[in-house]
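This entry is retained here.
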Amino acid sequence: MILTVPFLTDLDPQAAIKGSRDPLGLQTIWARLGRHVVGNLTTVSTSARDFTTLVLGYYFAERIAGGDGDLAVFLRWEQLAAYARGEINGDWAFRGVERVKRNLGTDSTAQILSNQKTYGLWGLYTVPARSSGLVEGDPTRLTAAGRDLVDRVYLPMFSQGGLRHADAVVARLAKARSDLDPPGGDRRFLQAVASA
């Protein structure tokens, strides 16, 4: 049974947030009541753009199915999306921003986090996406609602950017290694990815 009225006690030193992110100690109240109201979100999974990247990552992994596996395709998509977000959109609010800035145009195949599987979208957003009804099963696949979102919203964005049905994205992600030339030949490609 969830409490309907919060009450204050001394903070458990193990649960206390370190630093000044929560100087009033309100996060513990959010953790209890907020999860009841919005059960599929966490303090880590707060970005709509990251959910978009996750859903498209599972879409591309399923479309490419086979080869070197869903995870490898997903991680390559997450890297590609990060380069497009940063270089084209000027959106530097994602995990791995330092490595993306350092590797932009030099080594676009390098992982953008020390352990991208764990600390990236695969590890942090899959459970909230499952709770939201966007993905299900083992191996993880899009639900009917997740597929409808991709078909109605995101694939038309790729098509408007010149990547009909995102076929060029699929072709690039199917390769184990694919270098990017952001200021040159891949500029339009990255613009189409960034539009989604």
Observations:
- Residues 48-195 form one domain.
- The chain has a mean pLDDT of 83.
- The chain is about 50% helix and 0% strand.
- The two ends are 41 Å apart (CA to CA).
